[in-house]
Amino acid sequence: MSTAVPPAPSTPPLPLVRLRLAPHGALPRRIDGVWWPHSRDLLAQLPKLLAALPSAWGDITGVTVDAAAWSAAPGRMFVADQVVRLHKAPASPHVPDRVVLLSPGLGRWDLQVIPPNATEEAAALLTAAALGDRPPDVDGVARPPSPTTAARPRGRAAGRGTRAPRW
What we know:
The chain is α+β, with helices and mostly antiparallel strands. It has one domain (17-148). Helices cover 14% and strands 24% of the residues. An 8-stranded mixed beta sheet has the order 4-5-3-6-7-2-1-8, with helices on both faces. The chain is globular.
């Protein structure tokens, strides 16, 4: 005789990447977008982020992160058939956590990092403050980065200065 075990309640899968890029503007910005990773495991989170970036940003070959904020990582990692050099910089008490992405010949992009354990409300406020260009929605609440998927084809948005919003 066998007994049926009720299935465990399923939790919805986490979105692959929570990323919002700044809207196109005539003036350069200090922050090019906001990234809300699921953890501080750089080896797990970085490949998903790089896969979700617009193709116009080119191949990202260098990434600089706050040394104190991220888990241990090697000086290089292999992502999407290319080597990405990882640099850990000392944290600055005057600058929020950022990830700097470098693409030879194309430029530099700075993403503000929302702490993985932030609530949706806190993430929405940090996003609105960082990008400063999105008013709260009709109900008065600013929304956090909506998910983008790594499976989305790269190239839906153009590069620096000509890119479209990602959420």
